[in-house]
Design goal:
Layout (H helix, E strand, L loop, with lengths): L2 E6 L7 H12 L5 E5 L19 H12 L2 E6 L8 H8 L12 E7 L3 H12 L10 E5 L14 H16 L1
Parallel strand pairs: 1-2, 1-3, 3-4, 4-5
Amino acid sequence: MTRFLALCGSKRKNSLNKKLLIDIEQNLSDEHTFEIYDEIYDFPLFHSGIEYEDYPKIIKEYIAKLDKSDHIVMAIPEYIRGVPATLKNAIEWLLASNILYKKPVSFKVSSARGDACYDNLITFLKFLNPKLHEDGMLLLSGGKRLRDENGQFFYTETNNKLQNFVQHLEQN
């Protein structure tokens, strides 16, 4: 059984990224657990002058959840050609730890463009040395990320990419 912890970079009520995390959860086999963790929006801003023993309770709980999970999944929109501040802040709180060291991390960026966010996220994550795999990094940009009124993607290619992403999660 793999324990997944999912972080969403958007808190919008009808977020496409949140819907994608729900799709992933519904498509994973029952032998896995998948928790969508939304508390990153309540995190205080990171600053490097704070020692671990002085971290706020919410940050210590976040680090404990990451530690107990087997695989981290992120769903991210691109904001001003980069990673949303809430998610970047959540990543920065991990700088003093080795919590992501060799831990599998998968992500998908879904945005009008998304390429800059995708590249930035890889750069940020490499500082924490997680286990990244090409099949666990997905970029859905432009119309390929959009759905019809029934929640189905307009492009079959997007469904296929999402299924490949889920298959990667099942195997890693």
